Amino acid sequence: MATLRFLLSSSPFLSKPTSLPLPNSSLSLHFPLKPLVFFPKRCQLKRIRGSAVATDSAQPEVELQNDPLQETQKQEQTPTLVLPTNDSSDELLRIRHTCAHVMAMAVQKLYPEAKVTIGPWIDNGFYYDFDMEPLTDKDLKRIKMEMDRIIKRNLPLVREEVSRDEAQRRIMAINEPYKMEILDGIKEDPITIYHIGNEWWDLCAGPHVETTGRINNKAFELESVAGAYWRGDEKNPMLQRIYGTAWEMKNNSKHTFTSKKKLSAGITEEEAGGGLVFWHPKGAIVRHIIEDSWRKTHIEHGYDLLFTPHVAKEDLWKISGHLDFYKENMYDQMEVEDELYQLRPMNCTYHILVYKRKLHSYRDFPIRFAELGTVYRYELSGSLHGLFRVRGFTQDDAHIFCLEDQIKDEIRGVLDLTEEILLQFGFSKYEVNLSTRPEKAVGDDDIWEKATVALKDALDDKGWSYQIDEGGGAFYGPKIDLKIEDALGRKWQCSTIQASLDSSLFSAFLLDSPPIFCTFSFHPFHVDFNLPNRFDITYVDSNTEKRRPIMIHRAVLGSLERFFGVLIEHYAGDFPLWLAPIQARVLPVTNAQLGFCSEVIGKLKANGIRAEVCHGERLPKLIRNAEKQKIPLMAVLGPKEVETQCVTVRSRYGGELGTMKIDEFISSIQQAIKNRTSL
Fold first, then answer.
1. Does the annotation mark 547 as catalytic?
2. DSSP helix/strand/coil, 523
3. Known catalytic residue: 479?
4. C-alpha distances in angstroms, 275 versus 60, 395, 473?
5. Alpha helices in 268-401 (DSSP H)
6. Active-site residue 526, yes or no?
7. Is ATP-binding a UniProt keyword of this protein (predicted)?
8. What does pTM read for this prediction?
9. Catalytic residue, candidates 123, 139, 397, 481
10. Per CATH, domain 280-426+520-571 is 3.40.190.10
11. 618 is catalytic
12. Which pLDDT score is estimated for 63?
């Protein structure tokens, strides 16, 4: 609804500086999430059709904390904060919309040659697209300072209605070609214009705040720049999109600024290519923990783990239908000894080949294969979006081969597995929808009925409440959509159970093309009546006749990259003890204790605890730095601790925990990790 709302009512207009009656206009901003990983710019891969254009992505950092020496001990966790949304706060929506206009005005003041296009509000802020020379992070600082000046002047926002001819005359006078194209698309008269003082104007339907002074300049931030094609068409000019986030109050904004600040474990490297994620040490540690937990859970649920190649012969993708229907999302083939090989866009065909290695009996079912498989898909540079939209990513992929009468139980098992995995990371609230057959659909009625009933029965058996979206299914099958709610009350679309009844396998996977600015959709899992036919996979039934098994595709987390981005948002960069890349930091009072620090670090690491020593500053600063970097535990070592072979422990959440023996400290950490609690 948020996306639909902004498409219908937010301003898709522009403006440029001058003086009345021809005020000015501008647009800007974009919001890729910044992680413990980095994204390079220039892409060396070729797409099958069209050239690849890459953009930069930024890195997250963690919010700074107060001086730990002045803080009182924290005996309880901070209560959950639910952030306001555009739907719940009309004032917030107005602020974000006005921020887009103020930013556009600031851009055109600083860069008079910039041409403006559109600048809507979005779920966490706003953006604006400009036709101008590429911008850098330094440019964003200049633009933010100019916005602060405009806000401080408390300029009024004035709505004006003009005729179409008058609007056209004004646009021609300021030479804004994109604005003219937008005007041509407006069907209703009169045309509405919003002015910021007497200096800048924009075609706009509103709404806005009364004056620029209503914006709290401590509660908004310019986040990043990305490329975006005009009208989303790669044949059109590449624009500069500036993203920003905005809130009513500073105490709201700090929770979203957190993940954009200092979790920094990576940098942008231009040489490798855009949309390709480099996991640096701290990010790689978190990924390793996620993968270990994922593998353990899947083995417990009866899955066999696989590792398969990243490339395969072209013929495999012809059989699967990818080269016929998904070619534009695949990279160019490579020739190896007169044969063509293809980077894989999906993992399912490989799992089918593993299945076909032997003849199966009906007694073998269900057969469950799971893999953390890296895939590669061509994405236009304008659609790349931090960790949420990349060109190479790792899916938590699984395929279940089963009998027709096992579909319900297997889907129920997938729902149980989904719940168990998401609960491990703190997600316990869901919104579930079951979408049924649309008016135009493929497949026989009885197949649709079986698939729909299987999904419905699994949900009923699970006991989850859900809403039925009559006719909302895809043309190739019914589906279950699941959205998870994070710690701040934001909803993220997670898993989709899709019964794919179309003869084109790939169609179900197009669900992995979400609107970037509303909910971030994870990869689907669905019932497939089609692929077994394409690859002619069979089993021997109780009558010794060959029959076709059912194949269920599913991915709980989607991609590790995208899920990691959601985790950063969920925890605001403050990972719990069991998931934190550094769990304990050892701090000497002076360098005289460094020898004992090494002993303590050695014991911690030998017991599987991620620890490091930090020295070279005065102790108060070492403690303050650890707090800023959100290190869960600190062990302070002074002369007394060396003498007694103890450590003095400080927790981010429990404050001072006192002095304890090293073995006691290790045991306490291990117990907290096991129970996934804090000290």
1. no
2. coil
3. yes
4. 16, 15, 31
5. 281-300, 314-320, 322-325, 348-355
6. no
7. yes
8. 0.70
9. 397
10. no
11. no
12. 37
